[in-house]
Amino acid sequence: MAFLKINSANIYYELHGEGDPIVLIAGLKADHTAWIPILNKLAINHRVLIFDNRGTGRTTDEPKHFSLENLAKDVIALIDELEIIKPHLVGHSMGGAIAQIIARQYPDDIRSVALCNTFLKFNESAKNGFRGILDLHKSGATQTEIIDCILPWGFSSKFLGSDKISAIRAARNENPYPQSAFDYERQFQALCDFDSRSWIDQIAIPVLVLGSDEDITATLSESEEIADRIKHSLFVSMPTGHASQIENPAAFVEKLQNFYCGFATFKNDNSSLIF
Fold first, then answer.
1. Which of 36, 160, 168, 261 has the maximum number of C-beta atoms within 10 A of its C-beta?
2. Strands of 118-250, DSSP E
């Protein structure tokens, strides 16, 4: 549990476990705690870096707008400062967009990338839904009101009806570092500006694309399109909503481990690549 001064920001981070390094990049409105459900499972065999992006949690920076390219530079700077050699990246939602940028611009610095519940461009339906969250922030809504509006975008109908959802709601309410309206708007605008459609096929490192059957934020068809556009990719799906690592952490970790320990099939020539 520590901070690093990086690119005019004070980044909060944590390192857990030992072994093959993995860097986890959280999504819109999520801080490092979004990875708690899978952290202990991954830390058994990996050195795991979790952190708060600009605009969330305990990370602080200059009060100005940023792009996802800025957040990608933060990740690379963290990796360099902490002397983490060729980690696997795992990006969820907005974190998956950041991971796409890193995979394209810094391929020599990472070993592989997992793009989880993400997109080439934030679709209009989800954009309108999360713009409504911004309106709630600006109107002075309570954390409970904001969380209750986010939950349907994050989880499957079955999970929303389970007793687990009350624990998630309580944990968000008890967050000692809730996101401000200003910080949410900064992240939301950066995400709306992201568009990888013109360059996604330039990614040439091993990629796992994970989609979810009931994801309405980053739909399964969007995940399939990413996999279709990246030559060296493996596509897998889960019967969950958007927050797949929270809804089914055991299956999420199993998908990652199979990717790291097994083979990925090259689409064009059916050859195999060992990770």
1. 168
2. 207-212, 233-238
